[in-house]
Amino acid sequence: MDLNIHTIEDYNRIYDFSTKDPEGFWAAVADDYYWQKKWDKVLEWDFAKADIKWFQGAKLNITENCLDRHLEKDADKTAIIWEPNDPEEHFRKLSYKELHFKVCQFSHVLKNNGVKKGDRICLYMPMVPELAIAVLACARIGAIHSVVFGGFSAQSIADRINDAQCSLIITSDGGFRGSKEFPLKNIIDDALVQCRSVGKVIVLTRSRIPVSMIKGRDVWWEDEIRKVETHGNPDFPAEPMDAEDPLFILYTSGSTGKPKGVVHTCGGYMVYTGYTFKTVFQYQPNQIHFCTADIGWITGHSYIVYGPLSQGATTLMFEGIPTWPDAGRFWDIVDKYKVDIIYTAPTAIRSLMSFGDEPLKNKDLSSLKTLGSVGEPINEEAWHWYDQKIGKGKCPIVDTWWQTETGGIMISAIAGVTPLKPGYASLPIPGVQPILVDENGMEIEGNGVSGNLCIKFPWPGIIRTTYGDHERNRTNYFATYPNLYFTGDGCLRDQDGFYKITGRVDDVINVSGHRIGTAEVENAINMHADVIESAVVGYPHDIKGQGIYAFVILDVSLHDHELTKQDILQTVTRIIGAIAKPDKIQFVSGLPKTRSGKIMRRILRKISEKEFSSLGDTSTLLDPSVVEDIIQGAL
Ligand code: PRX
Fold this sequence. Notes:
GMP Synthetase, Chain A, domain 3, globular
């Protein structure tokens, strides 16, 4: 069966096939990859136990699909273009041959440093090609990578290292983002005070700031490569992996205080990311794909590294930020490399929009064919700006809905095929079966309806477990509604059957497209010596989509409130990282609690939105008078 989609009729036909014969459909998709041994069984699943297995019996290594298989025809094709933070610094291009060579070299380095299949490796690095090389080398040797975003604090890193019991860390001395320099190795040193499992740290030279190098533990990346270079043949045979062997762990926030280690496995994740990359963006050979995410997030894993490379594409990695040296930086990059596909977040679009037309002057942008959006709902104003100013009204916008747990894109227009509606993720891609349910888990059928978004059939990229705690995986995603994967998102299906994601229905805030659990932020605030209790909610924020609003009860004996706010922000930065800093802190004398002691966040959310007249029923509160006090403080 021809799985290429050129028209909406193709889409309808293939979508139909994918629901009538999911196993046949996915087997056909998987046939496009290189397997050391083909599968015995396409799918085995039991949502009640959160037990899902794809392509059982198959053997593969994802790096053979991302590297080796392109060497015959595309050895000299550029695999990675790297644009440095500082536009004055020289860019780098790595061909598939060079990337393969470097990945093999670094696989030797890992082996020399004692890494074996199944070991957990933590990566805390800037956006340099060596990050992609390290990720791929882990995959080649069969080690499980756990990339931690460079913005997380020492405490967050330590929690993640300890949860996964990582044995080795790969980091760099420092990193650059905009005008700032980050002391990555120093942060790792702080983290390691709490981590007994780590025996080795490999340190890449990037900013060459002074770092402490501990004998027997810390080694320089470059020294280790030199040792390997003298060995001659750098080839490193790819470890045969079972389709269901873990490929990586990526931590993400949920509604509890502790981040979850989302586990993806080798076979299904490979099939799903490559398929969605090719399908959604309608990627054509020789196009340049620029995903502006950081590899520290799932978008970077799936659409900078694995998806594009498995399809032999050229993927562009950018070390910096959209507004430095000025707000025209993305567009300079698009022009410099003649980018075909740009994939970014609504937050970035809104932020760039706020600079007006000036940064767009003298930008050509005519190379662009497709625009992508991910991470949060895109408001219509931002959608139209993206469409008109960047796409010049001629590039389809794919608003891609998905999650860390889904591995890849789930609901999205297919570029050039699906009719577009601003603000709508639009239609499920073939192979994905969404349904809407009410509070009781009853399916809401028909069009023009809203409900909680669930998926009723597995897809190859679905989360397999939460590291070290499978029960948590089951209760989080598969227990709310029997026999469904629950996304945590609210959703509208309009008269045409198009899906619009309306936002989280749980205690997760989406700040600039990054998930932050309210409980996590509350735990961090509560660590401050003067804080008695706190409650955190998300509120609408012009640029970030949602901002963090903290209601905080202080020890009454307090002196300087402004300074205390700064101290609280510093505490959150220490415990989680700057990304979780509240945008607003309001000191309150009490919190709206039910008689059983539960905080009624609904009321706090309304107050944070300044919707004081629609607070709903407050009579069930233990002390309804606190609400009036909080409103007064919020005015
Ligand atoms: O609420 C949805 C929102 O981001 C959440 C997933 O966050 P994360 O796991 O960090 O992954 C982000 C990148 C895939 C979702 O539950 N979200 C993601 N994409 C969209 C979105 N909300 C609306 N529209 C989207 N296109």
